[in-house]
Amino acid sequence: MLISATWLSSFLGDELPPPERTAELVTGLGLEVDGIEEVGAHTRHVRVAEVRSVAPHPNANRLRIVRIFDGERELDIVCGAPNVPDPGGKVAFAPVGTELPGGLRIEAREIRGVPSAGMLCSEAELDLGPDENGILVLEPDAPAGRPLAEYVPGAHDVIFELSVTPNRPDALGHVGVARDLAAKLACPLRLPETIGFGEVAEQPDLVTLEAPDACGRYFGVALEGAKVGPSPLEARVRLHRLGLRPISAPVDITNLVLLEWGQPLHVFDRERLKGGVVRVRRARGGERIEVLDGRTLTLCEDDLVIADAEDPVALAGIMGGAASAVQSDTTRLLLEAAWFRPAIVRKAARRHQIASDSSHRFERGVDHGFGLERAAARAFDLLRAWTGARPVARCEVRGEVPATPRIRFRARRCTRLLGISVSVDEAQEILGRLGVAVERESGGDLVCAPPTHRPDLQREVDLFEEVLRLKGLDAIEARSVVPSKPMAAAMPNLPRRLRRGAQDALAARGLLEIVGWAFRPDADFAFLDDVVPPARRVRLKNPLREEPTVMRPHLLPGLLAAASNNAARGARRIRLFEVGRVYTWPAGDGPNHVAGPVRLGEDDRLADERQMAGVLVGVPSGDVDVLRGVGDVCLHVLERLGYTGSTSAPPPGPLAGFHPGLVGAVRLADGRWIARYGAVHPDLVAAYDLGGWTLAYGEIDLWALGPPEVRKARPIPNQPGSSRDLSLAVPPRVHAAEIRDWILTWAQGRDGAVRLDIGDAGEPPVEVVEEYRGEGGEFEGGRRAVLFRLHYRADGRTVRDDEVDALHETLVAALLAAFGDDPRGPLRRR
Amino acid sequence: MRRWPCGGCRRLRVVGRVAEAALLCSPPVDPRLRAERERFIEAARKADDDAALYALKVEFLGKKGSLSKLRSVMRDLSPAERKAFGRDFNTVKDEIEALIDARRKELAKRRRAEELARWEDVSVVLDPVPRGALHIVTQTWRRLERVFENMGFTVHDGPHVEHGKTNFDDLNIPPDHPARDMQDTFFVVPPTDDGWERVLRTHTSPVQIRTMLAGPPPVRVVALGQVYRRDDDATHTPMFHQIEGLYVDRDVSMADLKATLYHFVSAVFETDLDVRFRPSFFPFVEPGAEFDVRCPFCKGDGCSVCKRTGWIELGGSGMVHPAVFEAVGYDPEEVSGWAFGFGIDRMAMLLHGVSDLRLLFDGDQRFLEQFPC
Ligand SMILES: [Zn+2]
Description:
The complex is a heterodimer. By secondary structure, chain A is α+β, with helices and mostly antiparallel strands.
């Protein structure tokens, strides 16, 4: 909302404070000033000049030499405009030294051999309007020599840009801003005088109201004999300054009154209204109307329209129809001033995707009382004055308007809520200044009826805010209160603890955290189709861009996109991680997982939001160690979070996103697979332009973790144990972890004095100490040699070699038997 | 003086110094002893390390050592000679032991001096371990959490895919109200056609509703997390992070809100900073106010960060609207409360001097690694 300082000040009984101070005051009232701009400073130098004579230019056909009188002397000006008035006419003259808005500085110079002592300017050159065809011709009575800034009020102005919050429709006009400012400054408000409808004859059928629930008030005034021409210069400049294009007097008048009172109006060409009357009614389904922006709308039965005897001529409160618009030959006018129910205007505006100055105000609620009446009268006055039209008939109909609330105001409560002292007298005085009708009860409470231009004042707290606004928020002093009873200790928040722990652990491993977009193109997740079918993806109804967009069901694409960017920027190593949520609709009837400790009954309707940690490490070319490294990171994170587990073979079933043969997992002590890691699937590597890179991805399902147990100490062995090495030829696709886990399970099920246990230096009971693939990776038909080391001990004594040998050999025999008929090939001892 | 017991020790022990060995005065009379002594002194001078000294000790004083062997000579001596020889023998033996010991100490001293004389250039690390980093949004998030936890707030979170009702209606933003336009919303396609409105939460404020529905006042929580608005330009990203604070109790006033904000900004910027309110409108508070903080970088004198105003706009706040209390079943006549909210991303940018919002979401390692932690 643009506000002109000149116009604003015309409504104030006192002088408007300097621009910066005004901006401060207005902002302090809750109407935030976003910008202040001084405009038209040059019009102090541009003067009204009288044309004395016009002579042809000796050297150019299209130029003329205009002799003007600038109030002091006569000067010759070379001018190319076709519309220089005859002698006696008045023009705008920029003398030498003037700087025009475009930065052009007027100098004395010769034009085709004839000296010119300045320039005659067009509206556009002076930034007083859009017209650049010819020079600006002023009224014949304009006094020569007068600076334009004085002759045209508002030519030199300060424009404030206000951002008005939706609760303050009253501030969408200059009068409303002036009203607040006057209340703040405690100075009188001077509203424009109006003559009013006076003796205009009533014509009851001029307006018919068929939808009293949707239209609370409708004034119609019929005028005749209008001459449609341009508005006076002052009005045109005002509109131009406030960002509107002057069109013709009737249209300009509705715009000016809109900017003055915040009241949208409309003028119809009555000649084009069938029957010369209007009906306010609901549209019939399928009715069509071409509106002023050129679109043809198909209406539905919820739309409120203004219709003539037959067809819709305007979408109520939003936009007029093209067919009934005022044109240059219009002579019969119908002025509309109305109040439409905000929700109805808003729904229709959304339905038809029109946002107009009018709908913007009606949606928020315009004044259905005094403001409406004064705005209508003002427009009426101006129409008569500027078009010469005379009124022939009028009609006012009333529907339902919101009842004025009666609000009890308790000063004590105000004091308690705001934390500043407010007395009854003070509150009564402040509310009175704002136009609130206040009655004082014997008990000291105030009963308040807000004015119709403040639909936002509905409850007691709204009045508290009014008092606070006018007292100023700086009156509040910082003062802490003590809770009325001790606050309960915060309950542990496991997701948050896991998130923090995982972030810290990953950063400690030299990885860099990213924050990835929670939504991405659906196409990014095609690789997941078998695991998270498209129907389970959480889709956005109105994504930013055309492409189908979903809340991410997986962290990998975000990490790959970041990796891809980094690789393109010359990174020599990728080391990224993210801890965040992935989103899917719950599968089947199982409970969904709403993040956070507070769960509502209807949360079953929401999505699963699972917290995951994803790690992406990449090197331009690397080997299996990079993959194992990420597995170790995953395990390490879990250990730091308080869980016990080990890297292992992957779980059965598809693992989307991974290379099927280069993948592992982390299993917790209870057997659950909680993390997966391995090489990124080659298709994805290619899709993200990362060909040639070795990329290892790991992800930890933090959501699946229950609270960790506090670790208990384990006794440190004080008698020596004994270890045996076992070298095995392991067939392809048999994981060493499978063998290790088989041995551990086997050993757990045995009783006896000797057992598998940690080594003397704390080594795990079964270690893989070496792996050998042979020369060129070839060893016994694709097998690889894996050296295991097994640690044995007995309770409370040194273990004997013969006992260990016996157990070890039994174990090895059982192991070889167990893996003997494995379809992947038999395990052999070396 | 009484101290808290450490749980381990019962008493203090004093360990005294061991006395130095005595030194010799005169050489022995017996030529054999004298010769052994001379031989030892000569050999000891050549012994350069502990191993050589040990070998010397074995050579002279071992069971079959050359000095030990001289003990057998005593059998052939008269009792008087034997007594003198014995005394000299012991003296030489003590002397050799003392000399070995002294020599050992001398060698240790020399080794120590040699060790201390070493010099290597360790001023440059040629292959440093890569540093990890938390994202500055995470770092700021934690900084804020810590400050509010210290002020007695519980940290809550809520779902990102939220009910339209919880995100709007319960927060006094009814359907068809222009306030719904203030935050352009991402709507979610429902999984089944159940007519239920689901949105990406446009603010952390639904956590207010969730918290109050969970139990009676007093309530003192902060909620931090991702929020989503359909907005994408130089100063807005469609996803960003917000923090929300809520305090509801009897007699909570706007003065307490101001005090809390003041304590919080001072703690976050680690310096005493003023806070001011400007009236504004947020549907779920009344009165509503934006709050500004005195620019921590110029202390109010004006700089580029605060655009020469001396103040930095931080966020929105106000007294919880009675309609919100009614939506969660609290009685607005009985309790009052305040709420505030602001963007974590902008705070992170302020704290770390980041001017381009896009850097936060780009994943550029050259940016991320600037903030190791
Ligand atoms: Zn500053």
